[in-house]
Amino acid sequence: MRIKSPAHCVAPPTGRNMALRELSSLERYLGLKKPNKYSTQGDNKVPVLQNSNGPPVVGLVTVACHLVKEAKRPELLGDSAESRAVVQQWLEYRVTKLDGCTKEDNKTILKDLNLYLQDKVYMAGHRFTLADTFVFYGIHPLIADLAIQEKEQYGNVSRWFDHIQHYPGIRHPLPPVVVLRNTIYTGKHH
């Protein structure tokens, strides 16, 4: 049985600090050989990368962007000025909207994302970026808590979510979520 956290849609109760798991997962996806050392600071458990080459790097988005640059994968931050701005916009959305959303916010968030993804394969257009990774992690608890019928109301989000959860190396450490049920056709034409 799964226990839902009251009034919040942030990290599932099993993950004391999901942000650190997300960063470790990102390291694996990027193929970084030497794992970094992380800690958290403050009541909100903001991730901190202990950087041996300088001062600590603080904040989920800042650390994630640092890791992408360290791995020499700049395309994950966008391949043009416009796409870089869109990636940054979605990374900020993750931290400011998704990480603190209440149950009352869920439908609005999913409705807005569904409309946005209507003509897009990925958050920043037609290429996988860091925005896809972190928006995926941010809405995973929302999608996991929805019934199949509710997921069908957000077809574009469900399509995008399912695509990203099957993207190699991204879903870990989160469990897979069934997003669409198989339709059984009766043979009758409607």
Automatic annotation (TrEMBL):
GO biological process, one term: positive regulation of DNA damage response, signal transduction by p53 class mediator
Record GO cellular component, one term: nucleus
Presence of the UniProt keyword Protein biosynthesis in the record: yes
Domain of life (superkingdom): Eukaryota
Pfam families per UniProt: Arc1p_N_like (PF21972)
Signal sequence extent: none
InterPro entries, A to Z: AIMP3/p18_C, Arc1-like_N, EEF1E1, Glutathione-S-Trfase_C-like, Glutathione-S-Trfase_C_sf
Location of the GST C-terminal domain: 66-190
Record key words, sorted: Elongation factor, Protein biosynthesis
GO MF annotation: an example: translation elongation factor activity
PANTHER family (UniProt xref): EUKARYOTIC TRANSLATION ELONGATION FACTOR 1 EPSILON-1
Protein name: Eukaryotic translation elongation factor 1 epsilon-1
Upper classification of the organism: Eukaryota, Metazoa, Chordata, Craniata, Vertebrata
Gene: EEF1E1
